[in-house]
Specification:
Chain A is an alpha/beta fold. Helices cover 17% and strands 42% of the residues of chain A. Chain A has a domain of 229 residues. Chain A is built from six helices and 21 strands. The longest helix of chain B has 15 residues. Chain B is globular and about 55 Å long. Classes of the chains: A alpha/beta, B alpha/beta.
């Protein structure tokens, strides 16, 4: 296989000699392993090395500052925002909130420890990462409005990889609705490799929504590590149809009693889009609750993957864990792979999983058509009916309406 | 309006309709009765354009060959089938379904599509005529509806879309007397000189409420006897065995 990448630490400015040394070590390690391929159990359904080598001539880390700064602000609901271009903060607005309750800064590479992980994308991120943000919500503070992170990718991004790290801390009793919004203007192929760490203190609550605005030739990998303290609550929503490649790799550690988490996803994959959701839910304490529901609709030659693992430690009695994946395959050429895994070391737990895949019900299509509805609209209605259930749990309001509309526009091909 | 000549239909190598002839003119109500397995529902399915059937013979609808038209085109041109078993469609809101349906038909006719407010006003009115609780309209289509509610919903759709030819496939099955009366009233109030009905049923009881102009007996894929409303009454007494 041809060498299709060329990464240089020298392109990153302002590093101390220690940092340069550490990053070079990571980069050397990456070059030994390369991008993950199907021989790696975690990547057996997504051979990233093969996918990238087919779609890139030469991926490089170009560390230029984006010229674009302007973004189209979502008008459907009032919100705070942070705007990132190619991973770097360019603007922010928290005017709806009280002062000094929300701390936002560039990610601090000097003080934050880096995770040790065998995953080569992680190692690459350690070597090349620049930009990203750290966000901290003060104790007892509940944000009045949702926060949108505009993840903009500029027109300069051709054959480029963007690496960054984010840190999100919710202190005790704090609350946040967070929307990660992928807003892309590059028509070219590029890659984004993000590592995010979410720390949730006692009684905190976070809705973490990942959504994209339009079709995009980006290849995305995001690793999220979440640590939950007592009675905290994390809900993740993934509505990211239209990306060429996307893998969300999420590790949720329910470290203290009564913490709970969920993962919901609604994806409508077209053409040869490829999306994988990989979860690892670690029940490390008793009385915790986890819920996962993953729904995929697959068209043409698209591929969807769900690898969901629930791990229950021996002390985690009274665990309640559930996972379900359902897929609708609209074409014989589409593919869906599910690999559910349960690893349980406690004896008083409630754990269940299920996975179904099938095709659309033609009698339902006929019923809708018999009412004058054209075939393509009938399919869209059925697909929308199938996927929109994922958003049911969100509280009624403008944010939910916005997400319902976005999902619908994704189903209609943006 | 509808002219069927020598219609044959086959599904999964089963020859079901074997040369059926039927003419329906505007303003007429036709009833088709017949024993189980005689081909009644197949006729309804073929007319609605359900895939899977191989057909021979001719079906003309207002001079146009029906088999050339897709299911949605038939509906847009005024053919309506009230299903024997209306489908439950999870995740699809009844109101949104009804609005999409009405606007698809209006669009095809070159009429202006209705905005949400105008539509809601209209559907509220039509629903109350049939004694349908508004709450049903905001629920998922037919999901968890009782048999009677599903059938009423079919009649609601008929009244909303205002078809020229309405085919009612065993709409009376699963209905109690009150629901039967409401459904029949719904049909009677819609009946006029311009439109026609084809009512498929096992029993006379629906025909006590909706008076047919013609009653046909379907047996083994063919119409074997045609008469007036009196024939239905007679069949109720003697059964099919004397005729077929």
């Amino acid at each position: 296989m041809k060498q299709y990448y060329d990464f240089k630490i020298e392109k990153i400015k302002g590093l101390s000699p220690e940092e340069i040394h550490l990053r070079k070590k990571n980069l050397e390690l990456f070059y030994q392993i390369g991008f993950p391929n199907k021989n790696d159990e975690d990547w057996k359904f997504s051979d990233l090395n093969s996918i990238l080598s087919k779609n890139f001539n030469n991926i490089a880390n170009n560390n230029f500052l984006p010229k674009e700064k302007n973004i189209k602000i979502i008008e459907e609901f009032e919100h705070n925002y942070i705007s990132l271009f190619d991973g770097k903060i360019v603007s922010k607005d928290f005017s709806y909130e009280e002062k000094n309750k929300v701390l936002i800064d560039n990610f601090n590479y000097k003080d934050e420890p880096i995770f040790d992980n065998k995953n080569s994308l992680f190692i690459l991120n350690n070597a090349l990462s620049t930009g990203g943000f750290s966000l901290e919500i003060s104790k007892n503070y509940k944000l009045k409005k949702p926060l949108i992170i505009y993840n903009n990718f500029s027109t300069l991004l051709k054959e480029t990889i963007v690496n960054y790290k984010n840190l999100i801390i919710l202190n005790e009793n704090s609350e946040l609705n967070l929307i990660n919004y992928i807003n892309n203007s590059s028509r070219e192929n590029f890659m984004v490799n993000t590592v995010e760490n979410i720390k949730m203190k006692k009684n905190s609550s976070l809705n973490n929504i990942l959504i994209n605005n339009s079709k995009c030739n980006g290849y995305f990998y995001k690793y999220i590590k979440c640590d939950l303290e007592k009675n905290s609550s994390l809900e993740n929503y993934l509505i990211s149809s239209g990306l060429k490649f996307n893998k969300l790799d999420i590790e949720i550690n329910l470290n203290e009693e009564y913490s709970k988490s969920s993962v919901f996803s609604a994806l409508n994959l077209m053409n040869n889009e490829h999306q994988e959701i990989k979860t690892r839910i670690n029940h490390n304490a008793p009385h915790c609750h986890s819920y996962q529901k993953v729904k995929n609709v697959l068209n043409n030659e698209s591929k969807g993957i769900y690898q969901g693992k629930i791990f229950v430690k021996n002390i985690a009695q009274k665990t309640d864990a559930y996972q379900l994946s359902r897929a609708l395959l609209l074409k014989d050429t589409a593919e869906f792979d599910a690999k559910p895994e349960l690893e349980i070391y406690a004896d008083d737990v409630k754990c269940s999983h299920g996975s179904t895949s099938g095709s659309i019900d033609l009698n339902s299509v006929h019923y809708l058509k018999s009412r004058g509805i054209p075939e393509n609209e009938a399919y869209q209605m059925l697909v929308n009916g199938f996927l929109s259930e994922i958003l049911e749990k969100l509280p009624k309001g403008k944010l939910k309406n916005f997400l319902i509309e976005k999902l619908e526009s994704q189903i209609n091909g943006h | 309006m509808l002219n069927i000549k020598n219609l044959e239909a086959t599904i999964d190598n089963k020859h079901i309709l074997k040369g059926l002839n039927l003419d329906i003119n505007p303003g007429e109500v036709h009833a088709i009765m017949g024993p189980n397995g005689s081909g009644k529902s197949t006729l309804a399915n073929v007319l609605s354009g359900k895939p899977g059937y191989e057909t021979k013979g001719k079906i003309k609808y207002n001079g146009e060959s029906l088999v050339e038209l897709s299911t949605e085109e038939r509906a847009q041109k005024g053919i309506f089938l009230a299903f024997q078993y209306p489908l439950e469609i999870p995740g699809v809101n009844t109101n949104i379904f009804l609005k999409t349906s009405l606007n698809s038909v209006r669009k095809a006719k070159g009429e202006q599509e209705l905005d949400t407010l105008t539509f809601l006003k209209l559907i509220k009115e039509k629903a109350s005529e049939l004694g349908i609780d508004e709450k049903f309209l905001s629920r998922q289509l037919n999901v968890g509806f009782s048999g009677g509610e599903k059938k009423k919903n079919e009649i609601l759709q008929m009244k909303l879309l205002q078809p020229k030819l309405s085919i009612l496939d065993e709409t009376d099955s699963g209905l109690d007397i009150d629901a039967l009366r409401i459904v029949a009233d719904g049909v009677n109030s819609y009946k006029n000189k311009e439109n026609a009905f084809l009512i498929i049923t096992h029993y006379q009881r629906l025909l006590d409420y909706i008076k047919p102009d013609f009653v046909h007996v379907l047996s083994n894929g063919k119409i074997v006897k045609t008469g007036n409303a009196e024939l239905g009454v007679q069949l109720e007494k003697t059964g099919y065995s004397n005729i077929v």
